Amino acid sequence: MCPCTKCANCHSYSRICVYEHLTDPHRGFLRGYRQWIYHGEKLRTSSSATKQNVEMEHDMDGLVHDVFGIHSTEESICGEGERIPEVRENSKFYEFVKENEQIPNCKKYSKLSFMKPKVLHKSFSMLLDLLRDALPEENILPKSYYETKKIVSELGLGYEKIHACPNDCILYWHKYAKYEACPKCNTTRWKTTNEDVKGNGMETSERRKKKPAKILRWFPLKPRLQRLFMSSKVAESIRWHHESRLNNGSLRHPTDSLAWKNFDARYPTFSLDPRNVRLGVASDGFNSFKTMSITYSTWPVILIPYNLPPWMCVKQPYFMLSLLIPGPKGPGNNIDIYLQPLVQELQELWDDGIEIFDAYKKETFPLRAAMMWTINDFPTYDNLSG
After folding, report:
1. Where is the Transposase-associated domain (predicted)?
2. Mind listing the pLDDT tens digit of every residue in the chain (386 residues)?
């Protein structure tokens, strides 16, 4: 029941009353409300916000932060006199961002900002032609959609395509990489068309470029973990659960759970470095065609780094897409077939780790990772680190 006098006799909130509650600065949301600050986030200073509005109208800062957790306006990637980190992948990324920061004689846009919202459009090449005609002759915009894709791929947003059996039996990967048909169900690896069946002698499937019947898209985890530590702020936040968490017996974060504590006791070497990443994995199907009239289900597999404080680890910028399992039907119990690339990578991260530069500590260290939980619509697996 609504506590206000207007609705004292009501059994539910009226629309007008709810609106007044939300807009009343003395009762509901404050006017100018932009950032929730009661979970421990730091307030942004007005000068910083003003600087961001003036200098980053193209939201280049948002692009880099959303993908890699780097605030390009609030912290320099490499300050004056600082040496670029020794890790090769880090160096390539820093140099790439610096090279593409600004278009000559253009104060409002950067080279990357032109590509951010438009990369997916088929007419992008035509748009580029128009923009290059309109801008000064010395502009350095890419000449085509494909050149743009090549530049954006340097950000580390790439993925690998792995062919799969349409019946979810195997991945054409490792020992099955060169197979033309599934060794378990004998189904061809390739799509078949009416021309393939008719075989009119003029155009056969061998003469045309073959198209796989099903493709798994795998987004490698290692470079994404490297990106997390490229921001000193994010690298510091990854240590939050060990250094800044309020530990008074209340359950506020996965760190307070028995599972986390038992894991620490079982693997003390892993737990010595709080930067070692504890991951959760989640998956669910969705209709990628935005209409319920078509029965089709695509299954993304998402990784969540639980080292981060609760106001960060459940935010979209820190979710890491690992796999995109195609439809038209959900993989069901055969999802373990598609998890193979992720499982292999997690095993490598557990056994050997990966060399990573920590922008907060200004040092290189061997990072290890373990998957601790699943949030899923598929069967629960044991801890893969064991």
Report:
1. 2-41
2. 455 555 555 555 566 676 666 666 555 555 555 555 544 445 555 444 444 333 334 444 554 554 444 444 444 444 444 555 556 666 666 677 666 666 666 666 666 665 554 444 557 777 777 777 777 777 777 877 778 777 777 766 678 999 999 999 999 999 999 999 999 999 999 998 655 545 444 444 454 678 999 999 999 999 899 888 988 999 999 999 998 888 888 888 889 999 999 999 999 999 999 999 999 999 888 877 666 667 788 899 999 999 999 899 888 889 999 999 998 888 888 999 999 999 999 999 999 999 999 999 999 999 999 999 888 655 444 444 43
Displacement of CA 205 from its chain's centroid (Å): 37
Residue 79 zone, left/alpha/beta (φ > 0; ψ -120 to 50; rest): beta
Look at phi and psi of residue 294 and say left if phi exceeds 0, alpha if psi is from -120 to 50, else beta: beta
3-state SS assignment for residue 96: helix
For residue 234, what are the contacts with CB-CB under 8 A and spacing of at least 6? 69, 70, 228, 308
Nearest to 303 by CA among 358, 365, 222: 222
Pair 221, 322: CB distance under 8 Å:
yes
CA triple 343-345-346, angle to 5 deg: 65
DSSP H helices in 164-307: 194-198, 222-228, 232-237, 240-243, 258-266, 268-271
CA angle 363, 365, 368 (to 5 degrees): 145
> What CA–CA distance (Å, rounded) separates 386 from 383?
6
Q: What is the pTM of this model?
A: 0.64
**Phi first, then psi: what are they for 72, rounded to 5°?**
-70, -25
Q: Which of 223, 220, 228, 372 is nearest to 308 (CA)?
A: 228
Residue with tokens 């078949």: 192
Which residues, in sequence order, are bridge partners of residue 304?
280
